[in-house]
Amino acid sequence: MRAIFTIAKRELVGYFTSPVAYVFLVMFLLLTGFFTFTAGNFFERGEASLAAFFGWHPWLYLVLVPAVGMRVWAEERRSGTMELLLTMPVATWQAILAKFLASWIFLGLALVLTFPAIITVNLLGDPDNGIIAAGYVGSFLLAGAYLAVSCMTSAMTRNQVVAFILSVVVCLFLVLAGFNPVTDLMVRWASPAVVDTVAAFSVVTHYDAFQRGVIDGRDLLFFLSVIGFALFATGVIIRGHRSG
Amino acid sequence: MIRIENLVKSFGAKRAVDGVSFNVERGEVLGFLGPNGAGKSTTMRMITGFMPPTAGKVTVGGHDVAESPLEAKRLMGYLPENAAAYPDMTVRGFLEFAAELRGLHGAKRKQAVHRVVELCFLESVLRQSIDTLSKGYKHRTCLAQALIHDPDVLIMDEPTDGLDPNQKHEVRNLIRGLGKKKAIVFSTHILEEVDAACTRAIIIDRGKIVANGTPEALRNMSDLAGAVTLSAHGATAEKLSELGKVEDLGGAFRVYPRDKSKASELAQAIVDLVAREGWKVEGMYSERGELDEVFRRITLPDTVKK
User: Which residues contact residue B268 at a Cβ distance below 8 angstroms, ignoring those fewer than 6 apart?
Assistant: First the structure.
């Protein structure tokens, strides 16, 4: 447990001693602002909710989260520090979990810094803050799912660019599987059962429930199992790499 | 402390390490020699538990590395190839990180960091980030990391690689000093290091151990070992060849003993001959044998042997 804390602390401090954290935070906040107020027509909607804000997250995270996750293992492999880390008295799963948690906390911090959006809607109207809270939970879980996938692709290669692209592709699948234009297209040739099954794998289907203010155990389970599966796969990939 | 039994590692069809067995006890410094790609790093990665072996067994301090890796890893300090370290951390931060992973916290951590900083002369760069360090300092930082918990077993992959001669000297002295109380394995392809720091050396070639012994014993495998070189006024190859095979070096003769085990008698025989013939001796010395000659002879394919 202490080892997890030590590694996670190092990771998290590492974000802030390099420009990565600052570039990411500024870009994330600028883009969420742009998408919410300009592209999302926040004011024209005339409703006191953060739907315009949360609606963009699956797309925004698609690019930004792999940018955070791509370095997690690829950098360790490239610089050779992976050998150092994994010959410490630390189990591989502890290292994987610690690195994931550190990055997830960092993404959570980015999300916390969007608090002016909450203040804005509360000043302008009378929103249901329960729905907003559920929205944040959903958004955080979504970021975690993308991040776990990025950790996995990051373990596959020592090249961060490759890790980034692979991660975007996998996450794009997770989005598109339940994206309405895609499911509409599938309905034409697949049976509804197949369409529903594929859509059930999509993060969007589960994410939308949170945006309606519903925290359903099944949706929680979905995100946690995506994270669990991706981290498990990371472990398998790392073991494979070590076996040569 | 370290027991290695029949260690094998295959990468696809290639056997990088092929049935390596040896033991290292406390107080021993084992030099691990071999040409590039002989399997030195792979063996070390298996000892430290980074790579699982294809076959065979490694035990460190009684703990099987494959079955109880955490217990085995606790006993070991490891300096990986190229001295990898997190470039964005400061030297102090990195050492503190290593100490915490080794279970040292609070005052113990502070003490441990202080100890290795003194041992590896890192005082002046403590606040620098690692990517701004010169290669020598980076190397020593990584070495400090390996020593932070004062391990019983120290595994070092080319600890002097890329260092200048002064730094090499320091690191060798450090290794020799540490070797009195620990079991140390270090790889190198610099032969003088074996003389400078090792109590025993293993030469590995294409995954197999081809020689194992003290530096002295390895040197004795050389053709040159036991030969006597004589430069004397009036000396002739003809007379000397009564005592053994003679090589004319131009101005001096080198006499090889017929029987290596009686090499010491050769020198006396030459002295007697010189006295009988009344030659004027300018110089005379016994050859110790050269490690690099032994190394070349046993690691080069037959066709290249001279």
Answer: none
Phi-psi region of A46 (alpha: psi -120 to 50; beta: other; left: phi over 0): left
**pLDDT at site B14:** 87
Is the pLDDT at B304 greater than 60, yes or no? no
Q: Which of A1, A5, A7, A10 to mutate to test the interface with B (most CBs of B within 10 A)?
A: A10
Q: Which residues of chain A does B129 touch, with a Cβ-Cβ cutoff of 8 Å?
A: 17
pTM of the model: 0.87
Residues B251 and B195 in one domain: no
Shortest Cα–Cα distance, B5 to chain A (Å): 19
DSSP string covering B234-291: T--HHHHTTTEEEEE-SSSEEEEESSGGGHHHHHHHHHHHHHHHT-EEEEEEE----H
**Do residue A80 and residue B74 have CB atoms under 8 angstroms apart?**
no
Same domain assignment for residues B208 and B246: no
Give the distance, in angstroms, between the CA of residue B236 and the centroid of all CA atoms in the same chain.
41
B93 touching chain A per CB within 8 A: yes
To which residue do tokens 């056997």 refer? Answer: B15
Which of B178, B193, B220 represents a domain boundary (last residue)? B220
Contact A3 B93 (CB under 8 A): no
Provide CB contacts within 8 A for A193, sequence distance 6+.
none
Domain match, B161 and B115 both:
yes
Cα gap B16→B45, rounded to integer Å: 12
Joined together, the tokens standing for residue A34 give 């742009």
Which portions of chain A are predicted below pLDDT 70? 244
Domain count along chain B = 2
| Nearest residue to B157 via CA among B142, B167, B170 | B142
Residues of B in contact with A10 (CB under 8 A): 86, 89, 93, 97
* Residues of the domain holding B271: 228-287
Let me know: does A74 contact A159? Beta carbons within 8 Å: yes
Predicted ipTM? 0.87
In the predicted model, is pLDDT for residue B126 greater than 50?
Answer: yes
> Does A180 reach chain B within 8 Å, measured CB to CB?
no
Give a yes or no: residue B295 inside a domain.
no
Q: Same structural domain for residues B165 and B253?
A: no
Q: Which residue has the tokens 């990584």?
A: B142
Of B74, B89, B129, the CB nearest to A89: B74
pLDDT of residue A17: 86
How far apart (Å, rounded) are the C-alpha atoms in residues A22 and B143?
32
Residues of B in contact with A87 (CB under 8 A): 48-50, 73, 76, 78, 80
**Where do the H-state alpha helices sit in B52-90?**
69-75
Residues 6+ apart with CB under 8 A from B235: B253, B274, B277, B279
Q: How confident is the model at residue B250 (pLDDT cuts 50, 70, 90)?
A: confident
Q: Is A105 on the interface with B (CB under 8 A)?
A: no
The closest alpha carbon to B131, from B99, B167, B83, B198, belongs to: B83
